[in-house]
Specification:
single chain; 402 residues; alpha/beta; Aminopeptidase; Alpha-Beta Plaits; 2 domains; eight-stranded mixed β-sheet; four-stranded antiparallel β-sheet; 11 helices; 34% helix
Length: 402
């Protein structure tokens, strides 16, 4: 097995589609143009289209020509995300964002295009028994579009045996895939801390309760939850990312607000971190005569690949790639809402190498070509490989005895 010749022949067409998406980025649950383009292409290729899940979600069902009574209910899912980020793009090439403050800085334009390339090939061949469900999901970056689609009946309407997704990964050589069983991405939780002190004159701090001073004590204390309460071999990150207090130089403010994120792989570790953060916040507030409260919201769970489906995907890739281009994915602390799908449906989330940025043409902004960077751009050279992987996964799954 290798990248599919028919998809390679459509490389220029796929590149044009990807760059069109890049030039017209849309935020979470606002992917109206993107979903219209996706739905129209699926319809043009004779694919059964369903719209409306999570508002802008698009689901295509490709029914195999080899389907009989025994295989009619078999379904495998392939998923891509469609949304962009609220960022200003610094690139100046021809396909740069046409919408100020909006940018495809994470490669979802490429993910959508690769799934379209796979859908077109599967619709033209239909050389499988059962159905392939192609899922174009909104709101991965913000809003948990995968969770919303599931809550609105994705799995009930399309009962998939397994689901497969992937993300591009800058820093991994183009043409390389990385995947591993177990946790590959962390959970993401957000917290807010409110410190209610007592305002006063900066020259008379003894008459005030300084919330900024309390915040200064909280910063190392919260890091101590990770370094002194959590087991050393368990992964977790507490990042305080905002602190807001005060209006002028000679007034001790009455209030300070802090916020940030917590990342962890296991629920037990996350439970520990949340509990200890609450105790630390309350304790330091009490010790300093301030009222401190913690609001802790769990946003995305950890992305945990299922062992059987990961072994299956790895077997498919082993037939496509030389051994040196199939590597293990070390877990990273970023989060991904495909995790919600993996909680409900067995599956695997793989990473396709996006290269080191050498693919970037003149007109790119400064900085590394990493995701969530204003000079990022998806590597169009990997479009046929990613699309071919998705086709081979679907074909082989529906040909396997499960």
């Amino acid at each position: 097995m290798k990248p599919i010749d028919a998809i390679i022949a459509r490389h220029a067409e796929l590149t044009a589609i990807r760059r069109d998406f890049h030039a017209h980025p849309e935020l979470a649950f606002e992917e109206h143009r993107t979903s219209d383009v996706v739905a129209q292409k699926l319809q043009d290729w004779g694919i059964e289209v369903h719209r409306g899940l999570a508002g802008t979600g698009v689901v295509g069902v490709i029914r195999g020509a080899l389907t009989d009574a025994s295989t009619a209910r078999r379904m495998v899912g392939l998923r891509a995300d469609m949304d962009a980020l609220p960022m200003h793009e610094t690139n100046a090439f021809a396909h740069a964002s046409t919408i100020p403050g909006r940018m495809h800085a994470c490669g979802h334009d490429g993910h959508t295009t690769m799934l379209l390339g796979a859908a077109q090939e599967l619709a033209q061949s239909r050389d499988f028994a059962g159905s392939v469900v192609v899922i174009f999901q909104p709101a991965e970056e913000f809003g948990g579009g995968a969770q919303v689609m599931l809550q609105q009946g994705l799995q009930e309407q399309f009962p998939m045996e397994a689901v497969f997704g992937m993300h591009n990964m800058p820093g991994i050589a183009a043409g390389t895939f990385a995947l591993s069983p177990g946790p590959v991405l962390a959970s993401n939780s957000e917290f807010k801390i409110r410190i209610q002190g007592k305002g006063g004159h900066a020259a008379m701090p003894h008459l005030a309760v300084d919330p900024i001073w309390v915040a200064g004590q909280l910063i190392p204390a919260l890091q101590g939850v990770v370094s002194r309460n959590k087991a050393p071999l368990e992964a977790a990150v507490v990042s305080i990312t905002t602190i807001h207090a005060g209006d002028t130089f000679n007034v001790i403010p009455g209030e300070c607000l802090m916020s940030g994120t917590v990342r962890a792989y296991t629920k037990d570790t996350l439970d520990l971190v949340e509990r200890r953060m609450g105790e630390v916040v309350a304790g330091i507030g009490l010790a300093n005569g301030a009222q401190c409260s913690l609001e802790f919201n769990r946003i995305y769970p950890s992305t945990i690949n299922h062992p059987r489906e990961t072994a299956f995907a790895r077997g498919v890739l082993a037939q496509m790639l030389p051994p040196e281009q199939l590597i293990d994915q070390a877990p990273i602390m970023a989060a991904e809402d495909f995790a919600f799908m993996l909680e409900k449906i067995p599956g695997c989330y793989a990473f396709i190498g996006n290269g080191d940025g050498q693919h970037r043409e003149a007109g790119h902004g400064q900085g590394p070509c990493f995701v969530h960077n204003a000079s990022y751009d998806f590597n169009d050279a990997i479009l046929p490989l990613g699309a071919s992987y998705l086709v081979h996964v679907a074909r082989q799954w529906l040909g396997a005895a499960v």
